[in-house]
Amino acid sequence: MLKAFSISDIGRKRQLNQDYVYVSETPVGKLPNLFIVADGMGGHNAGDYASKITVETILNEVSFGEAENPEQLLNDAITRANELVVAVAARATDLAGMGTTVVAATCKDRVLEVANVGDSRLYVVHEEGGIEQITRDHSLVEEMVRLGGIARDDARNHPDKNIITRAVGGNATVEVDFFTVELLESDTVLMCSDGLTNMLEDEEIYSILKCERSIREKAQELVDKANEKGGKDNISVILIAPFATDNQ
Q1: In the chain, which end has fewer C-beta atoms inside a 10 angstrom radius, N or C?
Q2: In whole angstroms, what is the distance from residue 131 CA to residue 217 CA?
Q3: Residue 120's closest CA among 57, 167, 181?
């Protein structure tokens, strides 16, 4: 039985939470379930508005979408969200330049379908095999790493780390990355904003998630640890146990 838990925390430095999360363990339209993390950007109120309308638009589009394929459903929904964010930003000067990351996922049987724009992430955490980042960050620093400009170890503290190269609302059109993952029964799925991953190394995240506790307790500890390390941004976490046992 699939179980999920979400938490979104303002962190210790921000005055506003611009993250927006959505969790449904039950069907949404033709999808068997739906999980979304969006991390908004822009001036005061703009980022949280961008993330909120993006998630709400995706939810609405998926609920009434006719496509049978999860990838097509999510692509259509994110495309529509991008159109709406761009249009709204063009009409209001205080919302100009707003945008948001989005990572969305749905799971059926052993297959996880993932859509991603920006630098919010989805990981699969294996009971024995460590933590595996499934999504690829759409960020300037990630491009520099990919092209050999800087070493992976130097990327974490690079001054341009927060510059993203792709966002919902960033351009008139949006390109969405898709990933398909076959899960093991012992796997846990983590979706998060960069408020978590900028504070905690992957190994620290894994050490928390491999412990024998409920996903609620694990999610709370991730947020607590990120805040202990400084909590420089909003912190959002969704944990999914696709084949949950009673104690999860």
Answers
A1: N
A2: 18
A3: 167
Report the candidate in 243, 238, 240, 226 with the shortest Cα–Cα distance to residue 13. 226
Range list of β-strands (E), 25-136 = 34-41, 99-100, 102-108, 111-117, 121-126, 130-133
**Single-letter code of the amino acid located at 57:** T
CA distance 236 to 139: 19
Strands 3-9 and 235-241: antiparallel
Return the domain boundaries, the chain. Answer: 3-241
User: Could you say which of 3.40.50.2000, 3.60.40.10, 3.20.20.370, 2.30.30.30 is the CATH number of the domain covering 3-241?
Assistant: 3.60.40.10
pTM for the full model? 0.94
- Contacts of residue 207, defined as CB under 8 A and 6 or more positions apart, other chains included, come to none
Is residue 144 within 8 A of residue 155, CB to CB? The reply is yes
* Rounded CA separation 99/77 (Å): 16
In tens digits, the chain (248 residues) has pLDDT values of: 999 999 999 999 999 999 999 999 999 999 999 999 999 998 777 999 999 999 999 999 999 999 999 999 999 999 999 999 999 999 999 999 999 999 999 999 899 999 999 999 999 999 888 999 999 998 777 777 676 666 666 566 666 667 789 999 999 999 999 999 999 999 999 999 999 999 999 999 999 999 989 999 999 999 999 999 999 999 999 999 999 876 66
Largest CA distance in the chain: 51
